[in-house]
From TrEMBL:
This is NADH-quinone oxidoreductase subunit I. Gene3D superfamilies: 3.30.70.3270. [4Fe-4S] cluster 2 binds at C97, C132, C135, C138. Its EC number is 7.1.1.-.
Amino acid sequence: MAVVKVKRPDLNAGEKLFLGAIVKGFFITMRHAFDSLRGKTRGADEMASSGLGATMQYPEQRWDEHMPEYYRGAPALVTDEQDRERCVSCQLCEFICPPKAIKIVPGEIPSDDAWAKVEKRPQEFDIDMTRCIYCGMCEEVCPEQAIYLRKDYLISGLNRKEMVHDKKKLYEIGGKRVGLVNKWNELK
Protein backbone atom coordinates (compact mmCIF):
# COMPACT_ATOMS: atom_id res chain seq x y z
CA MET A 1 0.00 0.00 0.00
CA ALA A 2 1.39 3.35 -1.02
CA VAL A 3 1.84 6.12 1.49
CA VAL A 4 0.58 9.48 0.30
CA LYS A 5 2.18 12.51 1.84
CA VAL A 6 -0.04 15.55 1.97
CA LYS A 7 1.80 18.84 1.78
CA ARG A 8 0.23 21.52 3.91
CA PRO A 9 -0.07 24.95 2.32
CA ASP A 10 2.44 27.55 3.40
CA LEU A 11 0.91 30.22 5.64
CA ASN A 12 1.81 33.88 5.42
CA ALA A 13 2.63 35.97 8.51
CA GLY A 14 -0.98 37.15 9.02
CA GLU A 15 -2.33 33.61 8.84
CA LYS A 16 0.28 32.34 11.28
CA LEU A 17 -0.81 34.96 13.82
CA PHE A 18 -4.52 34.27 13.17
CA LEU A 19 -4.96 37.98 12.43
CA GLY A 20 -7.84 37.46 10.01
CA ALA A 21 -9.75 35.24 12.47
CA ILE A 22 -9.24 37.69 15.33
CA VAL A 23 -10.46 40.65 13.29
CA LYS A 24 -13.47 38.70 12.00
CA GLY A 25 -14.37 37.64 15.56
CA PHE A 26 -14.05 41.23 16.74
CA PHE A 27 -16.49 42.48 14.09
CA ILE A 28 -18.99 39.72 14.86
CA THR A 29 -18.84 40.60 18.56
CA MET A 30 -19.32 44.30 17.87
CA ARG A 31 -22.29 43.59 15.56
CA HIS A 32 -23.99 41.57 18.33
CA ALA A 33 -23.25 44.32 20.85
CA PHE A 34 -24.80 47.03 18.69
CA ASP A 35 -27.81 44.81 17.86
CA SER A 36 -28.45 44.23 21.56
CA LEU A 37 -28.28 47.97 22.30
CA ARG A 38 -30.86 48.61 19.57
CA GLY A 39 -33.07 45.80 20.98
CA LYS A 40 -32.69 43.59 17.91
CA THR A 41 -30.90 40.62 19.43
CA ARG A 42 -31.70 37.34 17.75
CA GLY A 43 -33.15 34.75 20.14
CA ALA A 44 -33.95 37.22 22.92
CA ASP A 45 -37.71 36.68 22.66
CA GLU A 46 -37.48 32.87 22.74
CA MET A 47 -35.25 32.95 25.80
CA ALA A 48 -37.35 35.53 27.68
CA SER A 49 -34.26 37.67 28.12
CA SER A 50 -34.18 41.03 29.85
CA GLY A 51 -34.01 42.84 26.51
CA LEU A 52 -30.31 43.61 26.66
CA GLY A 53 -28.72 40.67 24.91
CA ALA A 54 -29.84 37.08 24.73
CA THR A 55 -28.76 36.19 28.26
CA MET A 56 -31.45 34.93 30.60
CA GLN A 57 -31.46 36.54 34.02
CA TYR A 58 -31.29 33.26 35.93
CA PRO A 59 -32.70 33.64 39.43
CA GLU A 60 -35.67 35.70 38.26
CA GLN A 61 -36.21 33.89 34.96
CA ARG A 62 -36.12 30.12 34.62
CA TRP A 63 -35.90 27.63 31.78
CA ASP A 64 -39.04 25.79 32.95
CA GLU A 65 -41.27 26.91 30.04
CA HIS A 66 -38.49 26.47 27.52
CA MET A 67 -37.39 23.01 28.66
CA PRO A 68 -37.29 20.56 25.73
CA GLU A 69 -39.41 17.40 25.96
CA TYR A 70 -36.34 15.16 25.80
CA TYR A 71 -34.51 16.90 28.68
CA ARG A 72 -33.03 14.52 31.27
CA GLY A 73 -32.68 15.94 34.76
CA ALA A 74 -32.14 14.52 38.21
CA PRO A 75 -33.10 10.89 38.96
CA ALA A 76 -35.71 10.19 41.64
CA LEU A 77 -37.64 7.22 42.99
CA VAL A 78 -41.43 7.10 42.65
CA THR A 79 -44.22 5.30 44.49
CA ASP A 80 -47.49 3.93 43.15
CA GLU A 81 -50.97 5.34 43.82
CA GLN A 82 -51.12 3.68 47.25
CA ASP A 83 -47.71 4.99 48.39
CA ARG A 84 -46.02 1.60 48.01
CA GLU A 85 -42.41 1.41 46.90
CA ARG A 86 -42.00 0.37 43.28
CA CYS A 87 -38.34 -0.60 43.65
CA VAL A 88 -37.64 -4.33 44.09
CA SER A 89 -33.90 -3.91 44.80
CA CYS A 90 -32.91 -5.77 41.65
CA GLN A 91 -29.82 -3.53 41.57
CA LEU A 92 -29.83 -3.27 37.77
CA CYS A 93 -29.58 0.51 37.98
CA GLU A 94 -26.60 0.18 40.30
CA PHE A 95 -24.82 -2.22 37.93
CA ILE A 96 -25.56 -0.20 34.76
CA CYS A 97 -24.61 3.22 36.18
CA PRO A 98 -21.41 4.30 34.33
CA PRO A 99 -19.99 6.55 37.09
CA LYS A 100 -21.19 4.21 39.88
CA ALA A 101 -23.29 6.96 41.48
CA ILE A 102 -26.03 4.59 42.76
CA LYS A 103 -25.68 2.44 45.88
CA ILE A 104 -28.44 0.02 46.92
CA VAL A 105 -28.63 -2.16 50.03
CA PRO A 106 -31.49 -4.64 49.54
CA GLY A 107 -33.76 -5.50 52.43
CA GLU A 108 -36.41 -8.16 52.86
CA ILE A 109 -40.12 -7.53 53.22
CA PRO A 110 -41.46 -9.19 56.39
CA SER A 111 -43.47 -12.38 55.77
CA ASP A 112 -46.53 -10.99 57.62
CA ASP A 113 -46.77 -8.11 55.10
CA ALA A 114 -49.57 -8.37 52.52
CA TRP A 115 -47.00 -7.91 49.74
CA ALA A 116 -44.42 -10.41 51.02
CA LYS A 117 -44.43 -12.16 47.64
CA VAL A 118 -42.27 -9.35 46.28
CA GLU A 119 -39.42 -10.54 48.53
CA LYS A 120 -37.21 -7.41 48.46
CA ARG A 121 -37.29 -3.67 48.74
CA PRO A 122 -34.40 -1.27 49.21
CA GLN A 123 -33.21 -0.87 52.75
CA GLU A 124 -30.90 1.91 51.56
CA PHE A 125 -30.91 3.65 48.19
CA ASP A 126 -28.38 6.44 47.66
CA ILE A 127 -27.57 8.47 44.55
CA ASP A 128 -24.47 10.66 44.65
CA MET A 129 -25.54 13.66 42.56
CA THR A 130 -21.93 14.89 42.26
CA ARG A 131 -21.15 11.73 40.28
CA CYS A 132 -24.41 11.36 38.33
CA ILE A 133 -24.00 12.18 34.62
CA TYR A 134 -27.76 12.21 33.85
CA CYS A 135 -27.38 9.56 31.16
CA GLY A 136 -30.79 7.97 31.78
CA MET A 137 -29.51 4.38 31.79
CA CYS A 138 -30.97 3.74 35.26
CA GLU A 139 -34.40 4.78 34.02
CA GLU A 140 -34.15 2.58 30.92
CA VAL A 141 -33.03 -0.55 32.73
CA CYS A 142 -35.55 -0.43 35.61
CA PRO A 143 -38.08 -3.29 35.16
CA GLU A 144 -40.57 -1.79 37.63
CA GLN A 145 -40.42 1.84 36.42
CA ALA A 146 -39.33 2.89 39.89
CA ILE A 147 -36.69 5.46 38.91
CA TYR A 148 -37.32 8.45 36.65
CA LEU A 149 -35.30 11.39 35.44
CA ARG A 150 -37.24 14.53 36.30
CA LYS A 151 -37.00 17.86 34.52
CA ASP A 152 -35.13 19.34 37.47
CA TYR A 153 -31.89 21.26 36.97
CA LEU A 154 -31.78 23.08 40.34
CA ILE A 155 -29.64 20.66 42.32
CA SER A 156 -27.40 22.31 44.85
CA GLY A 157 -25.84 21.68 48.19
CA LEU A 158 -23.38 23.33 50.52
CA ASN A 159 -21.23 20.22 50.92
CA ARG A 160 -20.79 16.75 49.44
CA LYS A 161 -22.96 15.11 52.08
CA GLU A 162 -25.98 17.18 50.99
CA MET A 163 -25.43 16.07 47.40
CA VAL A 164 -25.96 12.39 48.26
CA HIS A 165 -29.71 11.82 48.01
CA ASP A 166 -30.92 9.02 50.25
CA LYS A 167 -34.07 6.92 49.84
CA LYS A 168 -36.27 9.32 51.79
CA LYS A 169 -35.20 12.34 49.74
CA LEU A 170 -35.48 10.43 46.45
CA TYR A 171 -39.08 9.44 47.23
CA GLU A 172 -39.86 12.96 48.40
CA ILE A 173 -38.70 14.58 45.16
CA GLY A 174 -40.02 11.76 42.97
CA GLY A 175 -43.63 11.71 44.09
CA LYS A 176 -46.29 9.30 42.81
CA ARG A 177 -46.43 7.67 39.40
CA VAL A 178 -49.76 6.29 38.16
CA GLY A 179 -49.81 3.12 36.09
CA LEU A 180 -49.29 -0.63 36.17
CA VAL A 181 -46.55 -1.84 38.48
CA ASN A 182 -45.41 -5.37 37.72
CA LYS A 183 -44.47 -6.33 41.26
CA TRP A 184 -47.93 -5.47 42.62
CA ASN A 185 -49.65 -7.40 39.83
CA GLU A 186 -51.62 -10.33 41.35
CA LEU A 187 -51.03 -12.46 38.25
CA LYS A 188 -47.27 -12.27 38.59
